[in-house]
Amino acid sequence: MPDHTSIWMLDLQTVESRTFMPDDALAEHKKDLDFIRSASATFHIGLTMVVTHRLPSPHSLSSRFANDALSPPFASRLDLLPEEIQPGHWIHGHDPHRRDYHMGRMRVVAKPNGYGPSQTMPELENQLFEPVLVIAIGYGSRCLPANLNPVTDGQLGRGRG
User: Fold this and answer.
1) Which residues span the domain enclosing 30?
2) How confident is the model at residue 130 (pLDDT cuts 50, 70, 90)?
3) CB within 8 Å of 41: residues ≥ 6 apart
4) Is 52 found in the same domain as 36?
5) Do 10 and 69 belong to one domain?
6) For residue 4, what pLDDT is reported?
7) In angstroms, what CA-CA distances link 27 with 31, 49, 129, 135, 152?
């Protein structure tokens, strides 16, 4: 991937700088999974929520990237992880399109604006971006406009625990 040619890391065994390689990405991915498993196993009261930059499933890919050979580094196949750690929600970024779906009992949500506006991209990449969208977290939750009060308007879901 072209991104890897821009990322340098210090190899602690040789004490030399080198480019970031696919094996490095896999090692970082495994560390991230270990952290998610460890953090979710820690006792806490309330909802468990996972927030990542990368997508937890190819189901989060926009249709234009669904069959792209370069999509796997951006969308992991973690479809079995929700049953293992049982989070209520997984919120992710990276893909510039809004997503709101379920993997088993877990809700997966993304509401990015994508790139822009900038000199090279005068408009938002995600033309459907809603800057006032609020995501209410809890059982039976749904996306609400920011001007609604989830408590007084009866939209607040019940948390776990």
Assistant:
1) 1-43
2) confident
3) 85
4) no
5) no
6) 58
7) 6, 23, 33, 32, 47
